[in-house]
Design goal:
This protein is α/β, with parallel strands linked by helices and 127 residues long. Helices cover 43% and strands 19% of the residues. The chain has a five-stranded mixed beta sheet with strand order 1-2-3-4-5, with helices on both faces. The chain is globular.
Length: 127
């Protein structure tokens, strides 16, 4: 399955496929951002399964580097999938997920339905 692009609550979304090479570097993030921007997307969805395990070990710095690339290019990022087990083993990761979910640039959400709900809520708040 390849990436797909669609509109959701007035936002152009670029959704990466769950299958494929794991994203392991900020360079990989820039490649995804380029693909998303080429499609006119303002939000990129990356499944948890596509992220290198080092992403979730905050001491590696990978999560921060990748997130910063998305911020620099003004591209919102939603990481979708179950992160509960990972967060239960790391208070730092749990806090990172909590704090990023409070903002608008990076979200960790369990399902695509949660992405739709978040976008719907954001759309209603701006009207």
């Amino acid at each position: 399955m390849s990436a797909k692009t669609y509109d959701l609550h007035g936002v152009r979304v670029f959704e990466c496929a769950a299958e494929g090479t794991p994203l392991r570097s900020s360079g990989d993030a820039v490649a995804v951002i380029g693909d998303a921007m080429a499609q006119g997307a303002r939000l990129t969805i990356i499944p948890v399964a596509r992220l290198d395990p080092g992403f979730f070990q905050l001491r590696t710095g990978l999560a921060g580097e990748m997130a910063q690339k998305f911020v620099n290019y003004r591209q919102r990022l939603a990481i979708v999938g179950d992160t509960a087990a990972l967060a239960s083993r790391s208070a730092t990761l749990r806090d990172f997920i909590y704090e990023t979910n409070r903002g608008g640039a990076l979200w960790f959400l369990a399902t695509l339905d949660e992405v739709a709900e978040r976008l719907a809520r954001d759309a209603s708040e701006t009207q």
